[in-house]
Amino acid sequence: MPQRDAVTWNTLLGAYVRRGLMVEAEKLFDEMPQRNVASWNTMVTGFFSAGQVNKALDMFDAMPVKDSASLGTLVSGFIKNGRLHEAEELLTKRLRVTDMDEAVDAYNTLIAAYGQVGRVSDARRLFDMIPRGQYQCKTNNMRVFARNVVSWNSMMTCYIRTGDVCSAREIFNEMPDKDLVSWNTMIAGYTKVSDMEEAEKLFWEMPDPDIVSWNLIIRGFTQKGDVEHARGFFDRMPERGTISWNTMISGYEQNGHYDGAIELFTKMLEAGGTPDRHTFSSVLAACASLPMLRLGAQLHQLIEKSFLPDTATSNALMTMYSRGGALTDAEAIFKQMPQKDLVSWNALIGGYEHHGCATEALQLFEDMRSARVMPTHITFISLLSACGNAGLVSEGWMVFDTMIHEYSIAARIEHYAALVNLIGRHGQLDDALEVINSMPIAPDRSVWGAFLGACTAKKNELLAHMAAKALSKIDPESSAPYVLIHNLHAHEGRWGSASVVREEMEQQGIHKHPGYSWIDLHDKCSCLLAFCGVPVSQSKKHRDEPGNSTRGLIGQVFGLIVTCLKRRHSFPVFPSQAPIANHYALLDPQLHIAAICKASLIPSLMMMC
């Protein structure tokens, strides 16, 4: 059997250390016939990892020879054990002048550690201890200790972590030499504070931007909401990696440009890009928001063929299916998940709430508690909304009480809005008003809007006017008070009063934004708009214009609706197996008929009749 050399001994020693077997490692170290500096460094690292700081120090002091890694190992060990003061004391007081040529890397490590815990002043003090030029040892006139580019970059990063971009820029401007990390760090600092004007200016000053530089500037513009500018940079990229595609796709999705996210994902596949879990999560979120259930199901198949879905991807799939109405598929994914996190539970509870399945949402919450998963404020918003949709007043009160007293979660404005909506729409308007008056925080438009909606639904004109006045005071540009009061008068047949409200709304220059609904038809997403945002005079003029291309189709659609009503004695509902996937929506005569005709709904209506 060949004799073991130092490499073999060190390999075995490292294996013991990585597994935390320090007793065995120490015994092996004592038996080693020959030790080198790597052997000593391994033992120092092992003792620090095991939390045995004193033994690590003794081992370091006993080292016959030290290299640059030895000092770095000691400083990193102090940092990992939260003993930054001792690390600085070692560097500034105990270090011999002959060791100074190896110290700059250790200084840089400690500067970065100070920045990570927010101690910028300590980092700057240590940074200032490193001379700008070479430190001259008087005994041998040897070049030893000076700042390098990592020193400058570390100090700049410290300032950026705390949002002090001005001080970071001063460091950047003073740097004698800059590398790619320097430029990218400074650009990242500007994007962090959304100063994209300076970030873009600095980007174009870079001598040779790399793919990281391009990704940073694209992410900065998407975070600021300027997806058009971000797309301009994306299209000019000399090369794109998966991160580049993901940055732009997620930027579209996070800013509500769902069609843009899907369109870019298609181009990624055509260009031969390789989507990963982050890509699919963003595209699935876009499919869930449109919703495009059929495309989402195809993505599900592609994911299963590409890799085993992790928790985040499964959560995105579950959200997509639940929002699209395929609760059975969402439940199947939830049950098959080997590991569920908080998002998993909230996603399915939110899906139940979205589709009015309050009993299932409450039962899943009980399962969540049995699994000892701590709910968050988002969980209770979904539960309260589910109870409100189903009219479960007592259960809603129990949920609200559980949130405050059992989980010590302070009620937010969203919880109060859901609670007011729950009890108000059940006819308990006085109790709802009492909740509003007892709120520890000022009610906002969502709270007063929920109360106003409940008052108009229960035809309580006095309280409705009071709520409308409060809502108009908070949000003068909101059309909700006018529309709901108008509808209240119209429902009671007081058309004169309704006209007065409408005229006042127009005099104030307030317009209702048109309502819309997405449908997935023939593998294409279309949007149905309502006429509500268009003044009556304009909409009538538009309908009566000679040669209007939609006029004949409008008559056909209304004729088909009347036929359906006569045959079914109810409004037609699109079934889940029809070309419109999982969009359960009643036809409203005020729907934008031109959009309906464009979406080719006439054949669908004919099939239903």
UniProtKB/TrEMBL annotation:
GO terms for biological process: RNA modification; system development. It comes from the Eukaryota. Keywords: Repeat, Transit peptide. PPR repeats lie at residues 5-39, 103-137, 148-182, 210-240, 241-275, 310-340, 341-375. It holds the Pfam family E_motif. Signal peptide: none annotated. InterPro entries: E_motif (IPR046848), PPR_At4g14850-like_plant (IPR046960), PPR_rpt (IPR002885), TPR-like_helical_dom_sf (IPR011990). One of its GO terms (molecular function) is RNA binding. Transmembrane segments: none annotated. Coiled coil: none annotated. This is DYW domain-containing protein. It comes from Brachypodium distachyon (Purple false brome).
